[in-house]
Amino acid sequence: MAAQREQDAAEYLKKHKIIELMGNLASTLFFYRPDNPREFLIEQLEQLKISQQSGVKGPNLFNGSNVDAIIGILDPANQGYITFAQYKQALTTLSIKDINECPEGANEDRISHETFKEEVIQGMQRCSATFEQP
Q1: Is residue 8 domain-shared with residue 54, that is, in the same domain?
Q2: How far is CA 105 from CA 19, 77, 87, 108, 114, in A?
Q3: How many domains does the chain fold into?
Q4: Are 116 and 86 a contacting pair, CB within 8 Å?
Q5: What secondary structure, in 3-state letters, does 13-69 show?
Q6: N or C terminus of the chain with fewer C-beta within 10 Å?
Q7: Which residues partner with 82 through β-bridges?
């Protein structure tokens, strides 16, 4: 009985992308650190509802300038590339799932800034898709 309830709960969470939704809401909360977190979360949920109704993608914390800042941290000497290990760790740290295990430059262990940027933006778009209704 308990095993069935756990399975039902897990299926429910997966179907409605609840874990991803909560993770995205928590990330947004920590990113902006509003004075009134409850009010802020209500506003975020209202924006998500509007997003769902209008068909526009949900909110995304990262834009090109944010990714450029991450690149600056990963490549302080501005070599024009990062290692595959840096690439993978950065995407994992950003909670991007389904990481491309063979991005352009992986065989040479040189992931260009442009490739990294594309992978982050695509990964974040996949994450923001958790705001969409199943």
Answers
A1: yes
A2: 32, 19, 11, 5, 11
A3: 2
A4: no
A5: HHHCCHHHHHHHHHHHHHHHCCCCHHHHHHHHHHHHHHHHHHCCCCCCCCCHHHHHH
A6: N
A7: 111
Q: Are residues 12 and 37 in the same domain?
A: yes
Average pLDDT over residues 18-24: 81
DSSP annotation of 94: T
Bridge-partner residues for 112, per DSSP?
81
Same domain? For 41 and 16 the reply is: yes
The CATH number covering residue 70 comes to 1.10.238
The residue whose two tokens read 């914390």 is 61
Domain of 81 in residue numbering reads as: 64-130
CB atoms within 10 A of CB 48: 20
What is the CB neighbour count within 10 angstroms for residue 45? 13
CB 128 within 8 A of CB 24: yes
- Read off the tokens for 106: 């992986």
Residue 62 CB neighbours (<10 A): 19
- Predicted confidence (pLDDT) per residue in 89-121, tens digit: 999 888 787 899 999 999 999 999 999 999 988
**Rounded Cα gap, residues 29 and 26, in angstroms:** 5
**pTM of the entire predicted model:** 0.58
